TrEMBL record:
Pfam families: UDG
Protein's recorded name: Uracil-DNA glycosylase-like domain-containing protein
SUPFAM superfamilies, sorted: Uracil-DNA glycosylase-like
Source species, domain of life: Bacteria
Organism this protein belongs to: Exiguobacterium oxidotolerans
Domain Uracil-DNA glycosylase-like residues, every copy: 48-238
InterPro entries hit by this protein: Uracil-DNA_glycosylase-like (IPR005122), Uracil-DNA_glycosylase-like_sf (IPR036895)
Length: 248
């Protein structure tokens, strides 16, 4: 989505590249997209890149402040070094998506399900570097959303109760997935994401991708993550085996 990025290109180029960015650098009016019901939506380059040839779609709720910061830092640095807009948005996306503890937990759980072996890659972690061609990383609310200044968790307020959030989830996100060329495996991170994707599939708003059910949200803040994973491990593994051994 280069057209979206070009609107903010110069402001991103003006960001400092000689230090870590702060909240005050990026949560500014220059990047503010919309506000509603104590919710604030900011632009971030993490949401721009689309991989139309992806075989796997990993979907979160919305990028948090840390992912937003990394995306801006990677984008600003890439542009500073003369990288094209298209390549810079790709770098920002794969560097920032589910970064930190969340990515480590995500990789650990998927590797324990033998997901990497089924994909014929050494580890799920390589989806974010040498095997990027297989992955489309995104969120149902693709730009960072904050509720009362904190990362929006999807719980309060509910997505379906706020027109702003419904629009992003049911219009923007659906349109994004429909840009992918082939049906893929969707891995929704947590129940809120899974419910939203299932609704979109049921309503026919997105094509018939295969939805992995029961995968826990990998956030370090999810204290029930390990128990949920162990409870669902067998079912998750069965679904993956079914997907990778199916005959098209």
């Amino acid at each position: 989505m280069i057209d979206s990025l070009t609107i903010f290109e110069q402001v991103i180029r003006d960001l400092p590249v000689d230090r870590s960015l702060t909240r005050e650098d990026i949560c500014t009016d220059d990047f503010l997209l919309q506000t509603e019901h104590e919710l604030s939506v900011y632009y971030s380059p993490i949401g721009d890149y689309i991989n139309p040839f992806a075989k796997v779609i990993i979907v979160g709720i919305t990028p948090g402040l840390e992912q937003m910061r990394i995306a801006f830092e990677e984008m600003a640095d890439a542009l500073h070094h003369g990288v094209s807009l298209e390549e810079a948005e790709k770098i920002a996306n794969y560097s920032a998506s589910f970064s930190g503890v969340m990515r480590r937990n995500l990789v650990t759980m998927l590797d324990e399900l033998d997901f990497a072996t089924m994909l014929s890659i050494p580890t799920t972690a390589t989806l974010f570097n040498e095997h990027q061609e297989l992955l489309h990383a995104t969120s149902i609310l693709k730009h960072p959303v904050f509720y009362r200044g904190k990362n929006y968790s999807g719980h309060q307020p509910k997505i379906d109760r706020i027109p702003l959030l419904r629009h992003y989830a049911y219009e923007h996100f659906a349109a994004e997935l429909n840009q992918l060329n082939e049906p893929a495996l969707i891995i929704p991170l947590g129940r809120i994401v899974e419910t939203t994707v299932r609704t979109l599939l049921h309503q026919g708003r997105i094509r018939k991708h295969f939805l992995l059910s029961g995968f826990p949200h990998p956030s370090g803040a999810n204290g029930h993550r390990k128990r949920q994973f162990e409870d669902n491990r067998s079912y998750l593994n069965q679904q993956l085996i079914h997907y990778f051994t199916r005959s098209d």
